[in-house]
Amino acid sequence: MLRNVFCSLVLICATFALAAALSRTSQANGAVYYVSSSAGNDSNDGSSIGNAFRTVGKVNSLDLQPGDKVLFQCGDTWQAEQLVISKSGTEVAPIVISSYPEACANKPILSGSRPITGWTVHSGAIYRADLPTGEFPLGINQLFQNGQRLTLGRWPNLDAGNGGYSFVDSHTAGSNQITDNELPASVNWAGAIVHIKNIRWSMLDRQVTNSSDHTLVLNKGLSCLISGWTNCTGWGYFINNHLSTLDQDGEWYYDEGTRRVYLYSTAGVPANIEGSVIQEQNTTLRHGGVMLSDGSATAYVVLDNLEIKNWFNHGIGTPGSMNGDIYHHITVRNVTIKDVDAAGVNLSSWLERPSNGRKGLRGGHHMTFTNNVIDGANAFGVTGYFAESTFEDNEIKNVALIKNLGKSGM
Questions:
Q1: Of 18, 16, 26, 52, which Cα lies nearest the Cα of 37?
Q2: Phi and psi for 25 in degrees, rounded to 5?
């Protein structure tokens, strides 16, 4: 009798073990969706290479389940299409966003820029182009030629003396006026941006509202730290975001009022030009080329073998003002992030009350970043609040370079 009971228990246990194993296999082997910008169609079911989807928007609409994979075609590019990952996987069946063929060298590119055409002569070597509203609804904040980021026009030039800085000759602490006797007096600098050092490790950004002779009137007052907060006399500054700064090849300026881009080109009519498309910034979902979450918790997601470049803001981001355990067990590996105007990776939210045993700043836990390259971010390489996380074999370079600063500064 006891032996029969034991045998029955063994069979029951074996049955449960088999069922659990089959369940794990089922979870781990979820659906695979293929995406191709060159050969796909959103009316397809995405279930095979020959029936691939076309757009990132279609991917965003999928009700992804644990174990599902979304594979973007290597060598293809998606322009100004933000990827929003709003679903979660599980420990045994993460959601994977990657490429096909597997581990290709020419990674799929999620680009934040679009081509700009229709260039005509403005004057001399300065050319101009009007931005179409449909493709650039809010303008641009970076410009590229043949894939290389161009420098926003500035005065003094980068190759001028003192590393491209001029100096304040006269200023009163807290005042919104600075005087520099080297400043070209014939130029009306209204609308330009002054980037001024007020501490050795700090740059302030002020817009010029008016100018007269060698004096600039700024939209806000400022003070500089010498021995206490005092005037900014003797501190360095430079000016950009103004047509009068264009006097070297590759320098550019965008006039928001006329939606017109100006570019200094010694080679004639500009070709192969792209601009970073500014997208709506007053929503929580416009923080990066790839967004982890749509405002709710996201977990057990893998990003693998992608290139994210030319975005007006972050490369990878997360919404602000999120509650609770907002994201965790996220793996980012073999990803290249290049030439973004803010952080390469920005995974941080607001302050919070104690939640889920974690107090203070909201951030991620059990995050894994391996073998990634972040090249050319204008703010941080990686920023966020991380616990129990791993960063290994990543390369971060060309971060927050003065020459790459745009209108918004650093």
A1: 52
A2: -65, -40
* H-state helical runs in 297-362: none
Question: Within 10 Å of residue 399's Cβ, how many Cβ atoms?
Answer: 17
Position 348 confidence tier, pLDDT thresholds 50, 70, 90: confident
Which SS3 state, helix, strand or coil, does residue 237 take?
A: strand
Q: Cβ(106)–Cβ(74) under 8 Å?
A: yes
Are the C-beta atoms of 338 and 375 separated by less than 8 Å? Answer: yes
Residue 304 confidence (pLDDT): 98
∠ CA 127-132-137, rounded to 5°: 120
In angstroms, how far is CA 210 from the centroid of its own chain?
A: 33
Is 252 in a helix, a strand, or coil?
Answer: strand
> Residue 263 pLDDT > 60, yes or no?
yes
DSSP E strand boundaries for 112-235: 113-115, 120-123, 126-130, 140-145, 148-149, 154-155, 166-167, 177-179, 193-199, 202-212, 215-218, 224-225, 229-230
Check whether 375 has a pLDDT greater than 70. yes
Identify the residue whose tokens are 């909201």: 362
The beta strand positions in 53-192, using DSSP E, are 69-73, 77-79, 83-85, 95-100, 109-111, 113-115, 120-123, 126-130, 140-145, 148-149, 154-155, 166-167, 177-179
Tell me, rounded to whole angstroms, the distance of Cα 352 from its chain centroid. Answer: 25
Model confidence at 7: pLDDT above 60 = no
Pairing of strands 395-397, 148-149: unpaired
Looking at residues 225-229, what average pLDDT do you find?
85
Two tokens, residue 378: 């204008």
In angstroms, the CA 173 to CA 219 distance is 15
Q: Quick one: pLDDT at residue 281?
A: 63
pLDDT tens-place string over residues 296-334:
778 999 999 999 999 999 999 887 665 556 788 999 999
Instruction: Report the alpha-carbon distance of residue 196 to residue 31 in Å, rounded.
Output: 53
Give the Cα separation of 294 and 313 in Å (integer): 17
